[in-house]
């Protein structure tokens, strides 16, 4: 049986930023040797604390940032490296992004129709009647109405603006959507609405999604597989249920222990774990990713992995 080609494949991706100058100049490894793939119709959750590099990973994939090293493949085609007109068209016509801040993501001087029409151009939909009809269909698909098309962003709530951002992402009929913290700026009740909307769209349209978030409970609900990032490194990767049932890396355990419990009695007894990276000794052994169970990968040295495997059989 022939292997299924992933929609997105990231190999040894690196992205560094330079801060300061002269003697105070420092290099920050925002993304450091990250590898993962996403299959068609799958949602891959990328989770970690603020500043761990997950947003930089998403922005580098869609070429808002240029990578420093590594390769990114979209349906088998290399999309990292020198940007060309052909490559730009390939990316913008097939990969769309939903941004974290629904206010900053929309141009305040453009109507909603003008905003979505910009994306429709990548599908060669430019006629006034065609645009009006396509915008109306997209707005209705995300829970708004065609009457909203003539309004400006300031006339909408945060949740409505994020629905507009989703409609704009859908306008290019993307093969891959990168959702960068799409609910973190919204009220809790609105977060549930947007997550349910994305879940419905995923089922209806067979969407492939890279879902970036720091809220583990949201990621578990929405993702098929999850990658956990810490300071630019991918430290664990597994199917959603497996990761929550058998977290292996100490950082993953600490993240899961921080999830609040809905039951007040269980919440009162919840013990939050603290992760101290100094527990790892990388001076004699170099760490790498190991498959310690089918489709369950963890970052560590060979000695650490021996201990991790013992945890799985207990």
Largest sheet: 8 strands, mixed
What is the topology, as strand order, of the major beta sheet? Answer: 6-7-8-3-9-10-12-11
* Count of DSSP H/I helices: 11
Low-pLDDT segments, ≥5 res:
none
Topology as a string of helices (H) and strands (E): EEEHEEHEHHHEHEHEEHHHEEH
The number of distinct β-strands equals: 12
Give the C-alpha Rg.
21 Å
In percent, how helical is the residue content? 25-40%
Q: Structural class, please?
A: alpha/beta
Strand content: 15-25%
Q: Mean pLDDT, as a whole number? A: 92
From the N-terminal CA to the C-terminal CA, the straight-line distance is 35 Å
Q: Which term fits the overall shape?
A: globular
Provide key terms for this protein.
24% strand; 8-stranded mixed beta sheet; 35% helix; 4-stranded antiparallel beta sheet; single chain; alpha/beta; 314 residues
What would you note in describing this structure?
It is a single chain. It is built from eleven helices and twelve strands. The protein is of the alpha/beta class and 314 residues long. A hairpin with a 2-residue loop joins strand 4 and strand 5. Helix 3 runs parallel beside helix 5. The longest helix has 18 residues. It is globular and about 65 Å long. It starts with 7 loop residues before the first strand and ends with a helix. The model has no long low-confidence stretch (mean pLDDT 92).
